[in-house]
Automatic annotation (TrEMBL):
Species for this entry: Jimgerdemannia flammicorona
EC id: 3.5.1.41
Annotated Gene Ontology cellular component terms: plasma membrane; side of membrane
GO biological process: cell wall organization; chitin catabolic process; fungal-type cell wall biogenesis; polysaccharide catabolic process
Catalytic activity of the protein: [(1->4)-N-acetyl-beta-D-glucosaminyl](n) + n H2O = chitosan + n acetate
Identification of the protein by name: chitin deacetylase
Broad EC category: hydrolase
Amino acid sequence: MQSKFFIYAAIALLISSASAAPKSSTASAADAPSSSVASVTSAAPATTTPTSGSFTFKNTYPSAVGPLPVDPEWLKLVNFTQVPGAPYKLQAGVGPVNPTPGQNTYCSWTFTQCIRPDDITFCPTKGDWGLTYDDGPSQFSPKLYDFLDTLNQKVTLYLIGSNVIQYPDLVQRAFKAGHHIAIHTWTHSYLTTLSNEQIIAEFKWTERAIKEVIGVSPRYVRPPYGDVDDRVRNIAHQLGFVVNIWNKDTLDWSLAESKTFQAAWIDNNVTAWIAEAPNATTGSISLEHDIYSPTVDVAIKILPILKNTFNVVPVPVCLKDQTPYKEAVTYSLSGNGPAPAAASSGSSGNATATGGSPGPVSVAAASAGSAVPSASVNSTTKPSAASTSFDTKTMVMGVAAVMLSLAVVGF
Ligand SMILES: [Zn+2]
């Protein structure tokens, strides 16, 4: 079994080094301008006033498919002369491709897992475990939220903006429960393949929707697939955001996207992480998803196991960051989240906490330099999850890898 997995993993890595296809990429040729300063400044009207749930939106929002309209006011927030001219790396129907194989001038995490000192990739304190769930809210989120409630467990939720307007009641529930709410873009596209303006729109539309629903603006953003380079980082920072990746990937997404993936491999990963814990020098941040039923089920299965070994907390808690929102809302480091006063604004859409600039990034821990943190370098001697630490590595790659691996092992 393991030998077959090794072949799978090796081939998957080989393929992933060349390309990575999106789960639901919406990047189109229209998103592939030059890498220079903003040229698209028009703001096409947002098209939809969401009506889902009991929450009544005042704003209108775009569809889940880009390119997105851009509010000209957002463009004023970014000094485009400071944005690195990293070349776009879009291969239609595939995703990012490295225009300079063998080189990584712009510190792309996708191609080499390169990080910068202000990237958040792990919890600094040994024994801490930053628990994150991406891609929600979804129809399956309540099951996860219910379970978290039973454990009084708070987590970080990286929300897709177009899902926020579908499930505003769930966002309010999560915030009121004390979970840390963060941004995972609007269309779940590969950000390094988008124009500067579209990157801004991905972040700001999601921020706007979350602000309307819970009254606060998240400071933490997670690029889908971990697809970040210096251009994306610079734009995120100028908009007042900090970038959070991860260093432990459960590969839970494979349960839904690969018919050959076996749930036991996730168990093996968890077992390996626990075995490695005594020798770890830092804590971890893990990646899971609440967008699929199987991933919610596995999340519920492994959380008690993780809690037996690790101090499982939302990411700001392990970073001792009391300002994960742009507004003056103090986040409790007890793991119970913020006093959710702002969430009680209901359908008013107005924050009760206003003003304030993004606080300093209290992420001294993420000062691992440009090297990959030790905790993210996973052994290749076992089916360790993070050997392919991409957010949702896609059916295309997975199916191709499996087919090749089956051919190699003689299936
Ligand atoms: Zn995602």
